[in-house]
Design goal:
Radius of gyration of chain A: 22 Å
Radius of gyration of chain B: 20 Å
Largest sheet of chain B: none
Number of helices of chain A: 8
Mean pLDDT of chain B: 85
Number of helices of chain B: 14
Low-confidence stretches of chain A: none
Low-confidence stretches of chain B: 46-52
Number of domains of chain B: 2
Shape of chain B: elongated
Number of strands of chain A: 12
Oligomer: heterodimer
Strand order of the largest sheet of chain A: 3-9-8-5-6
Structural class of chain A: alpha+beta
Order of helices and strands of chain A: EEEEHEEEEEHEEHEHHHHH
Shape of chain A: globular
Strand content of chain B: under 5%
Largest interface: A-B, 41 and 34 residues
Distance between the termini of chain B: 43 Å
Mean pLDDT of chain A: 84
Amino acid sequence: MMNKQVVFRPYNLSSPENMVTSFIIADVQFIDNDFEKDIDFWRPGIPLNWSARVELNNSEIIRQCNLLKSDNCKILISLISRGTGRTFSLINNIDIFSNEKIFKLVGKIPDEEVSDNLQIKIQIIVDPDLTIERPYGSPITQNTIILTKEYLLVLEKSSAYMNVIDEDLGEALWKFQFALPSDPTSWQLLEWNNVIQITTNSNIQEVIGSSVELQSALFSELIINLLDYIISIDGGLEVIVNTFESGTFISEVRRFSASLLQLDEDRIDLIIRDWQTLKLEAITTAQSIVHSGLAKMVNNE
Amino acid sequence: MNNCVNFRLLSDYSNRVSTLDDLLKVVSDGNYDDDFVRAKLNDRDYEDFISGVSGREVISNHGLLEIRHTLKTFIKDKEPTTKNRQDFDQYIYINSLEIFPMSVYQACDKKVWNYLSWYVLLDIVAWRWEISDIGTVSDRYVYNKARHVFARLWHRRETSLKSRYGTDFIFSEREWDIVYERQSLCKNPNVVNAIMSIMLKYKNESKENIVSVNVERTWMKQNIRLLSQSTFEAYSENQLNNIFSENLKKILATY
């Protein structure tokens, strides 16, 4: 899985380091730059209580975003369930001009309303006072997001769902096996774990498990190879692009492709038009991530 | 939702596409009746025991046949005309949570809906959506939240229960699609309910619907534009209602 901390700053938004977060849900704790964790004990009916601790660098946020005393700032916690499509949120007003820097929020998700995974978003939002003239680039719309931290809690499926096994592969890092039926019209109901198998080298499994860079490389290589394979099957890519809802195979290929190629999931049809360019960009990005990861490992040694 | 039962023991053997084709043939041949369904329900091959919601009664074969009986009674002696089919949809929409008493968790499991629509209710599904042209009806037979014959109505009803404006959102498929085929909108009940209540108000006041005046695409684009710097979760249903109403007013003024 790619480590996803992409920051867009089209306006005078705050730097991510101005918010330090800790989020605890069902005894799983996410600390600041964590990204994804999973729990294997969760079953529907097990309550999902959560608590968040948010520490803000108020003065820097005020400076970077040109905030005024009359602006209304809020903390928004959103938990979005991929399986049920349900969103749960809690919003609290805060006075960013006070000395209070640490904010604590708690909540509970109703039983049996989530499945698959939970995307957790902690956001600082501002309602700017537009009666006062402000410097160019200041937030100018209601409820502008100026800071976001995101985590992912995988509730179900995890590695068994992705069909990852380990065995001794000698010098190879990993191996992918695709078992797709040759007729793409029969793909609609396929489940991912029935047609894709990922094997990681048991000799370096710990390294892969702890290195976000290597996981990114695995993910990139898997999706690039899979898309190449799908494209080689007549009509395959069209089925992936045009099937609205489906089994986990098509839905995950769509989701992973969109994530790797940085496309909106609704626009993965661009792959049909421009696969070679998108592929080169994805390989370049993956190489730079792996390169920085390897440099880090060497330096640590 | 109280009095839910556990539907999670049902499984459709999702990858066996040929099974659906075989079953559709039984329907076409006129052999898909109560006896056929009863025999299938007693056939253990069609059940797959997966871990479900604990501490809850599992739906019995008798319960499944009750669901079948309820729907069969409603369509008894009715020709599959457009009007009768619309009445059927309306009936399911209003009563879906009682007919299919399940939690959101279960209602988002395609195995449950596929099992129900294939092994218990397929002749009724075929009454509602003809099977002559499988290319155009397949997404009504296979679970997805926006289009499945029963699941789509269940989700619409369940979402509308959270509305401050009541639950009487009676729309055509095309009108429902305005929200339910846009993933960024339909995951937030406040957004769905704000849009639906505005559409209903417009329909009641002008006797036209948003689809017929051909502005829905522009309107939705304007509404989604809110996400460029913000998030729907930061707004209350009332605020969303005001913003979406203003957007619609502006578009209709130039229309």
